[in-house]
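hiii, so i know i said id send this last week but things got crazy w the move. better late than never?? heres the sequnce for the chain we talked about at the cafe, plus the structure i predicted for it. fair warning i was half asleep when i ran it
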Amino acid sequence: MFQKLFGWSKKKEESQAGPDIQFGRYSDNNKPVAKVNRWTDADTLYKEKKYIESIDAFFEYLRDDTAQNVVYERNGAEGRFHLYQGSKIVRGHFNNEVLKAEVTLARMPQPSVPVMRRLLEMNFNLYYSRFALDSDRLCMSFDSDIATASPSKLYYGLKELSAKADKQDDLLVQDFTMLETTDNEHIVVIPEAEKEVKYEYLQKWIKETLDTISPLDPDKFSGSNAYMLMALIYKIDYLITPEGKLLYDLEKITGIYFKKDERPVVEKNRDMIDEFKKMQAKPKEEVFACLFRSKYTFSIVAPQQYKTIADSIHGANQNLVWYRDNNYPFIATQIAEYGISYCQYSYSLPKAITELVHLYMRVNYSGYFAALGYKRYYDPVKNQFASEEISEKIKAIQERWKDKYPLMDFKTQNLRFDNLLNFDYSFTNEMEFLNTDPK
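okay and structure toks below
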């Protein structure tokens, strides 16, 4: 009664939340029902040729009220907007005739043929937007007649513009020394202490994985080595959340494995290991430059049916059994982690599922979270879990999302707390069978 009257339980939860640190990539697959309805409104208004009202509804749908990632204002038939995507800001305006959006990539004080060639080549892969040069500004632009600015066209056009610009600005400045960074004053610099922790654990996780792989027969253990290397990519991406060149390096390593060619896994593993060794050798200052906070409007990956997620978890859990039974517990935990971290990396997951993934990571990497200022959920030295708190966290997640996922039932009584591997297996097994069907 007193908890309900005075909100003590909420205050306790807030006090235990820890510092405000972002983990993982932004997902726009977390909109409440009211926001989703605004998309329907935008589509209906567009079909009724109420184009300006349709744009109103579209930007209300697009805006994440928590992230405050979209600023929109309208005066009569004219309006302006800007939206955030990582290190870039997309700015635009519209009237009764046209909608235009533009984002600045970099400054080019002197004309450069190699830069222009690069942009010309990349233009061929764009569907809605294009690279452009305005005086000494390298930019990207998108525009549409109001009469053809359907919600779908606006969404995919602005998404292409935003995502490509956010990725290319850092790469262009690093590849071409004559270019200068610009229009990134909105980026939030993270504390030096946080950067130190992230750098320390980046090195620790790479070393731990490579040291585990080193004594293993590369042919006999090619499958497990691939699992560990891929789990390492997804771990770094989710827990450290690097930007810029470091993010590009992770994507490059991912591409080595998933490239559709005839090369054996052993060769791909060797190349991925070489890339991780290069990452290990990066100067601390170079890594620090890739650690900052920013807002996002678009997810760079797409949603999937939950069966796809369940299949990934099931496949990984089936493959870890031999390693569990033959005394390779670290390999087995990494395979279990791969099953869910692959989905977190590759798909735009519902927020409820991401919250469960985050709890899983907090248990498995309690040392990292403790170094960042969070409470430990697992002590590997004592093999001791905060079992009651973990179970309560799961119940709180289900309660928070019960209106959207009324059939989701994570059975906390099935969790095992005798060792980390059994916890991982039981946790992911419960995730496999979650029902995320709506009402």
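btw The chain is about 55% helix and 10% strand. thought thatd interest u
miss u guys!!
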